[in-house]
Design brief:
Length: 494
């Protein structure tokens, strides 16, 4: 490319000119940062790693759990057909709820807004009570019934969103607005790592779903770092092929040579950072170094040959097959065993707008024994008491049928007013049932728990004060639990 010589002085002048962003970056080590610190005090510390180390003292509290596993059921399982038993509705089969819904101020999705009738659809499944708390568990989840004494059921969850994408963002980033940091990233930022050779936050996708599932699309926003430094983003392990791309060195590249290459890149990046002050350069350096260490740690992690047959029997036969939920559950145990702070398992296909009895049964079969195996495996290894496990979707399902209602076949639309989540281990009460919904599983009668309150409770058990864990961004102290008051649900804690 030829450049007119007359332009060269102007280009030099433009390159030498500080942009507004560069000015603030370069002045961060001078008098400007001293003045800013005197104005903002400890709130300014969240902007750098050194500051984070100081700020930890502000948000750390005595932990009950060292790590967490979040089982995310994308699509939203029906609480009416799993844990929120409503036997009085059987006699009201097909009753039109149209006028009743108007009195409730019902929010309708575009999928049912045009229906002329809203027939009541009782669950076709049998229920029984289990555990010391007398939790109602559907016949769809026989392995859950066996471990009801280990679970803490919250039947009074509620959320603000009625559609999947905003509801998932609220559930996993604390906001329906895009660009926020995910829960796992907040935990990684707030607590740091327990193993330098693995990511602090790992994501597993149970990609093998039932043949009837209506698979919802999800995006990396649900495990992204948002405004936090990029190193706190979740690292997704692949279900097929190498767990991480480019895990093996190219032919002819020895480990020593690879190490020298990383050192050379680090030196170049340090020069770039000194010139520009861009924190993303530091993130890139840390990612290269982590990738080098993962080349040794990940093969050991994913090698299940040392797991005995009793372990496979515990999780179920599917646990040998990568991409199944059972295999993901087993991998989650191996990850937390090696010091990973936060593991998130995504299992999709829970959006039963039609053919619910068939499709939900298939979905429950996918996860039932795997969940049981995970809880019992952690328990027998002495890890359940300091590992918090959370299970749930983004909202609940309606009591009325979407589309045509038949005696043994129905579908349910989205319902944000109430749904069920369970927790286990990590200092929560085992065999405990919390909250109550009305006879229609429509409104909450006792002990409502908002999504932000669930977040506050999870952080509390991990040793983080959710009101003090903040990161300054765009003039605000950003928090996972937002700006509205959110309390820790102390009734759930042992």
């Amino acid at each position: 490319m030829n450049i007119d010589p007359n332009w060269i002085p102007l280009l030099h002048e433009m390159n030498a000119t500080l942009t507004r962003r560069q000015f603030f970056r370069r002045s961060a080590t001078g008098l400007g940062v001293a003045a800013l610190s005197s104005l903002l005090g400890p709130r300014a510390y969240g902007a750098s790693d050194n500051g984070a180390a100081l700020a930890e003292k502000l948000w750390r509290i005595a932990p009950k759990a060292k790590r967490a596993i979040y089982i995310s059921l994308i699509g939203a399982p029906s609480q009416l057909d799993t844990f929120d038993y409503k036997p009085g509705l059987t006699a009201r089969f097909k009753e039109d709820l149209k006028d009743w819904l108007k009195n409730q101020g019902e929010r309708l999705t575009g999928m049912t807004a045009g229906q002329q009738t809203f027939p009541l659809a009782p669950s076709v499944f049998k229920f029984a009570q289990y555990g010391p708390g007398g939790a109602w568990v559907s016949e769809l989840l026989p392995w859950h019934a066996k471990m009801a004494g280990d679970l803490c059921f919250i039947r009074s969850m509620h959320t603000d969103a009625i559609n999947h994408e905003p509801a998932n963002q609220l559930s996993y980033t604390g906001s329906m607005i895009m660009g926020k940091a995910s829960m796992g990233s907040w935990v990684a930022y707030g607590l740091g790592t327990l193993n330098e050779d693995l990511p602090t936050f790992v994501v597993l996708h149970a990609s093998h779903s039932s043949p009837y599932s209506n698979v919802q699309a999800i995006s990396a926003r649900l495990w992204g770092a948002g405004f936090l430094p990029g190193k706190y983003a979740g690292v997704a392990l692949r279900a097929k092929g190498d767990a991480v791309l480019y895990l093996k060195d190219a032919p002819g590249i020895s480990r020593e040579m690879r190490h020298k290459m990383i050192d050379g890149l680090t030196a170049l990046n340090e020069r770039s950072y000194a010139a520009l002050g861009d924190p993303e350069i530091q993130t890139r350096t840390q990612q290269f170094e982590m990738a080098f260490r993962m080349q040794a740690s990940v093969p050991d992690l994913t090698d299940l040959s040392g797991e005995g047959e009793k372990t496979y029997e515990l999780y179920g036969a599917d646990s040998k097959d990568r991409g199944t939920f059972a295999n993901s559950a087993l991998m989650a145990r191996r990850l937390v065993e090696r010091g990973v702070r936060f593991v998130q398992i995504f299992h999709r296909g829970w959006d039963q707008h039609g053919s619910l009895p068939r499709d939900l049964a298939s979905q429950c079969k996918d996860v039932d024994q795997g969940c049981y195996g995970l809880i019992q495996d952690l328990k027998q290894r002495g890890m359940l008491e300091d590992t918090l496990v959370v299970w749930g979707g983004e909202f609940g399902r309606t009591i009325y049928c979407q589309g045509k209602l038949e005696e043994k076949d129905y579908g349910r639309d989205h319902h944000p007013r109430c749904f069920t989540v369970w927790m286990a281990g990590g200092g929560v009460k085992p065999g405990f049932v919390y909250g109550k919904t009305d006879e229609m599983s429509y409104n909450i009668l006792e002990n409502p728990v908002h999504v932000h309150e669930l977040h506050a409770t999870i952080l509390h058990q991990l040793g983080i004060d959710h009101e003090k864990l903040a990161f300054p961004y765009q003039g605000l102290d950003q928090r996972l639990t937002g700006v509205e008051p959110a309390k820790v649900v102390s009734d759930l804690l042992a």
